[in-house]
């Protein structure tokens, strides 16, 4: 009896030890693979900085759950080191120096906004640190000849191109010509929005439209009533507003307050600013450009389909339960996934090899196809345009993705 | 200068020369330290020595940055096309174009800022005390807004200069020595200047401007000359910063009134106004405190900075140098 107990104890001990061993060997198997990121957690880009950070963290977790990153015969888990760039470019550049020199980071995830990315890209370029960024869309990032910069998102000039095309279409349908369309533009004075403006100007010129207002929003973006008064007087057919989340919130709020009656209003960052949740009916019939929509049919083995991504993300981050998961979050997750893919294809941690693997990326993701041009921007994924119809975001353009017809003219 | 002093200065020079090799990971921070020393010393020229507290010296930093960049781009490409938001083609610089552009641009920036100081000074030096401080601050803020709405030089999106060609470690040394060289030249220049009649004249303006005027000092001429000299050096470090940062935008990087524009004043207050060494010591202390708080007390850094300013202003109005002089009144002034 006594002997049996001893045997039992011994067996138990062995079993326990082997379980411990198995556990520790599993933990040993996956080492940390450190990525760095300077991101706006305070300052004017804080809302979207947090959206992006959540996207990064969600992807890190999902990839770890799916078995980590296999490089050769070793396994790694991503770990991201963050610093708050305070939404200031020179601060962001200094932090990248710190990440590279003091934290010895070899691979970077991007910051939020084109402006911050513009400040950081030369630094990562100097250090030859591959950076996959998800939040810098301005074309001015991709005409500098940078070799280590890769962006998963579509460039800014595409954001509102379909809105201008739709306006031309509607003008024709209602018996007038596209060249009679009057366009009003109000954008923030920053690299992203200035590129939006450049894109709209190019498209408007193609149709011979008239630009009746071309103004820059004040810097704090909490008041655009002066510009809206001008809109009331000049009665444009299309109003384009771009100014990140703050600009979107201000536009929707004041357009509602001042009863601005324009047949078509197109803005950016609707989801990130949660304009439906914050302003309700005032946001109806706004056109919102988006990099990604959960209703699209993209999918991949890690995140599943686009709608699955949204579902799982919402359960991981309950604060998003009542609103749309913004595309800023989705593309941040996609950036981490691009890194995983590049590491696995490169089969080494050598940053030069990773850079080359990144440039050869051709990856289907829940966020859309990702394939980089020579300049580093993603050329495989289209932008979509959604309209807020009775509080619901419905895709209205381009036509091959459209699920709903456009509400036009918009009712104030 | 006695032997002891000579040994002291030579040792400092050697330290300056070898510092980037002693701390290779901190080359950029060391370069920034020299930038702080230069802007603090130049601020003290008017603020400490002449009694005109400018809050707008950042004007010359931003202007220097833009002038240097525009000159260096303009020597090779069409500036308007280079800064166009929708530009698709690549616009590159050869190594020679980069260096010639940088040097010409930086010197041009210094000269341009001197002229700017004379023009702006002609108007603002009619103001005294807090009015002068607010007046110059206004000019700096207005300049930032003007630049951010000027499309030809990139407007709100700023300018991206080319990345340093060639080995980047050498590049870091290049920028360190540019900043350090400017700092050393400025220090020697001021050491000489403050020992001349000119130095005595601007001190007289500080102590009692009416009396100085009555004694036959042409105060306006002295004030303008002093500010123009200060602006020259600020313009130069602004130009260097532009090439070091590579990308900069008008409101938060170039005309950063609330950051560097205030930091330079804090440095001088910390070190001691109206002394040769005060701004240098203040800049070193401030830069050290700033790096530590920004790295280890992230989230509290602005609180720490505010506390530092309050403590300095309330308890150490004369700064480190003033405190030293009070403790050891007999010791020779460095």
Summarize the entry for a quick read:
Chain A is 43% helix and 20% strand.
Structure, explained:
- The complex is a heterodimer of chains A (412) and B (334).
- In chain A, a hairpin with a 2-residue loop joins strand 14 and strand 15.
- Chain A has 13 helices and 17 strands.
- With 412 residues, chain A is of the alpha/beta class.
- Chain A is globular and about 65 Å long.
- Chain A folds into two domains: 215 residues, Rossmann fold, CATH 3.40.50.2300; 146 residues, Response regulator (Rossmann fold), CATH 3.40.50.
- By secondary structure, chain B is mainly alpha-helical.
- Chain B is built from 15 helices and two strands.
- A two-stranded antiparallel ribbon of chain B has the order 1-2.
- Chain B is globular and about 65 Å long.
- The chains are: A alpha/beta (412), B mainly alpha (334).
- At the A-B interface, helix 3, helix 4 and helix 6 of A face helix 2, strand 2 and helix 11 of B.
Quickly list its features:
heterodimer, A: 412 residues, alpha/beta, Rossmann fold, seven-stranded mixed β-sheet, 20% strand, B: 334 residues, 2 strands
Number of strands of chain A: 17
Global structural class of chain B: mainly alpha
In total, how many domains does the architecture of chain B comprise?
A: 2
Count, helices of chain B: 15
Distance N terminus to C terminus of chain B? 10 Å
The amount of beta strand of chain B, in percent, is under 5%
In one word, what is the shape of chain B? globular
Q: Which chains make the largest contact?
A: A-B, 42 and 39 residues
Mean pLDDT of chain B: 92
């Amino acid at each position: 009896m006594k002997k049996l107990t001893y045997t039992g104890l011994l067996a138990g001990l062995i079993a326990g030890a082997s379980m411990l061993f198995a556990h520790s060997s599993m933990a040993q198997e996956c080492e940390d693979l450190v990525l760095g990121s300077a991101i706006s957690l305070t300052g004017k880009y804080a809302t979207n900085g947090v959206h992006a950070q959540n996207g990064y963290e969600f992807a890190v977790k999902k990839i770890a759950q799916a078995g980590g990153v296999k490089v050769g015969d070793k396994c790694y888990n991503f770990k991201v080191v963050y610093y708050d760039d305070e939404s200031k470019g020179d601060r962001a550049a200094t932090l990248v120096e710190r990440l590279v020199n003091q934290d010895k980071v070899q691979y970077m995830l991007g910051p939020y906004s084109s402006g911050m990315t513009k400040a950081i890209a030369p630094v990562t370029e100097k250090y030859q640190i591959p950076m996959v960024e998800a939040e810098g869309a301005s074309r001015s990032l991709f005409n500098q000849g940078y070799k280590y910069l890769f962006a998963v998102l579509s460039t800014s000039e595409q954001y509102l191109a379909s809105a201008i095309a739709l306006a031309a279409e509607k003008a024709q349908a209602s018996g007038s010509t596209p060249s009679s369309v009057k366009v009003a533009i109000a954008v923030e004075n920053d690299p992203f929005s200035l590129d939006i403006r450049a894109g709209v100007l190019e498209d408007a010129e193609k149709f011979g439209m008239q630009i009746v207002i071309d103004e820059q929003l004040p810097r704090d973006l909490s008041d655009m009533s002066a510009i809206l008064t001008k809109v009331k007087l000049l009665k444009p057919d299309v109003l384009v507003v771009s100014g990140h989340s703050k600009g979107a919130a201000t536009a929707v709020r004041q357009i509602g307050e001042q009863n601005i009656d324009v047949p078509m209003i197109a803005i950016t960052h609707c989801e990130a600013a949660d304009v439906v949740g914050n302003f309700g009916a005032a946001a109806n019939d706004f056109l919102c450009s988006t990099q990604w929509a959960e209703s699209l049919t993209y999918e991949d083995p890690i995140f599943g389909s686009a709608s699955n991504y949204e579902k799982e993300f919402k359960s991981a981050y309950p604060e998003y339960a009542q609103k749309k998961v913004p595309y800023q979050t989705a593309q941040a997750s996609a950036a981490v996934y691009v890194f995983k893919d590049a590491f696995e294809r490169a089969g080494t941690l050598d940053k030069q090899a990773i850079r080359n693997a990144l440039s050869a990326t051709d990856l289907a993701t829940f966020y859309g196809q990702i394939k980089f041009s020579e300049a580093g921007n993603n050329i495989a994924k289209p932008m979509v345009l959604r309209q807020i119809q009775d509080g619901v975001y419905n895709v209205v353009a381009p036509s091959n993705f459209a699920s709903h017809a456009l509400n036009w003219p918009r009712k104030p | 200068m006695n032997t002891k002093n000579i040994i002291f200065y030579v040792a400092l020079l050697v330290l300056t020369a070898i510092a980037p090799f002693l701390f290779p990971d901190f080359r950029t921070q060391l370069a920034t330290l020299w930038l702080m020393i230069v802007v603090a010393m130049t601020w003290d020229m008017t603020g400490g020595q002449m009694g005109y507290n400018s809050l707008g010296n950042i004007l010359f930093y931003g202007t220097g940055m833009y002038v240097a960049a525009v000159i260096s781009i303009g020597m090779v490409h069409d500036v308007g096309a280079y800064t166009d938001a929708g530009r698709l083609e690549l616009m590159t610089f050869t190594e020679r174009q980069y260096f010639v552009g940088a040097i010409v641009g930086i010197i041009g920036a210094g000269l341009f800022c001197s002229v700017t100081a004379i023009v702006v000074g002609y108007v603002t030096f009619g103001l005294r005390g807090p009015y002068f401080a607010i007046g110059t601050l206004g000019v700096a803020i207005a300049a930032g807004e003007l630049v951010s709405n000027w499309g030809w030089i990139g407007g709100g999106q700023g300018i991206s200069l080319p990345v340093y060609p060639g080995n980047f470690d050498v590049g870091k040394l290049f920028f360190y020595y540019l900043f350090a060289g400017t700092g050393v030249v400025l220090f020697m220049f001021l050491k000489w200047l403050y020992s001349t009649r000119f130095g005595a004249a601007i001190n007289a303006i500080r102590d009692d401007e009416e009396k100085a005027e009555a004694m036959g000092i042409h105060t306006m001429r002295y004030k303008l000359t002093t500010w123009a000299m200060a602006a020259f050096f600020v313009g130069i470090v602004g130009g260097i910063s532009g090439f070091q940062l590579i990308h900069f935008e008008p409101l938060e990087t170039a005309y950063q009134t609330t950051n560097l524009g205030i930091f330079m004043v804090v440095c001088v207050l910390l070190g001691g106004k109206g002394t040769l060494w005060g701004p240098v010591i203040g800049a070193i202390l401030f830069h050290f405190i700033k790096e530590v708080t920004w790295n280890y007390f992230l989230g509290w850094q602005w609180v720490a900075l505010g506390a530092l300013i309050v403590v300095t202003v309330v308890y150490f109005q004369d700064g480190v140098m003033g405190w030293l002089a009070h403790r050891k009144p007999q010791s020779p002034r460095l």
